[in-house]
Amino acid sequence: MSESKIIDVLNKILECELAGVVRYTHYSLMVFGHNRIPIVKWLRDQANESLMHASVAGEHITTLGGHPSLKIGKLIETSKHSLNDILNESLQHEQSQVENLYELLKMVEGKSVYLEEYAREMITEEENHIAEVKKMLKPQPK
Asked: Which of 63, 61, 66, 76 is nearest to 14 (CA)?
């Protein structure tokens, strides 16, 4: 188990979570219409959760003797702000984070229960977010 490679992946996770803070905060400012209040609350909750997840990833990095990155993951401004566009971008963001977490899980599986459990818990949370966003994107049954 290479701690430096694990730290690199944890930094990717940290950077992605920090991008989530920015992304979800931005989205929350761009919602208009009848359902604005609950959607804005949900997006701001996502931003707060991303900040918490970033802190946890940073703690794991420092526990391993690493230095948490000051970078923020990829942020692309599409200038598309319909609710479907926001949800589709959110879905892509969450799916890329799940890939990072599976990469971490593969590296630590059977080698560190502590990091393995962290990766599994985060995968569970992120896959749950993906499922919720997919449901939100489905058209209302007639």
From this structure: 61
Contacts 24+ apart (CB under 8 A), 95-99: 95/130, 96/16, 97/13, 97/16, 97/17, 97/20, 97/126, 98/123, 98/126, 98/127, 98/130
Task: Check: CB of residue 97 under 8 Å from CB of residue 124.
Answer: no
DSSP annotation string for 84-137: HHHHHHHHHHHHHHHHHHHHHHHHHTTT-HHHHHHHHHHHHHHHHHHHHHHHHH
Coil vs helix vs strand at 31:
coil
Q: What are the pLDDT digits (tens) for 41-61? A: 999 999 999 999 999 999 999
Check: pTM over 0.85? Answer yes or no. yes
Q: For residue range 67-76, what is the model confidence (pLDDT) as tens digits? A: 999 999 988 8
Q: How is residue 33 annotated by DSSP? A: S
The domain made up of 3-135 is a member of CATH 1.20.1260.10: yes
Domain limits of the chain? 3-135
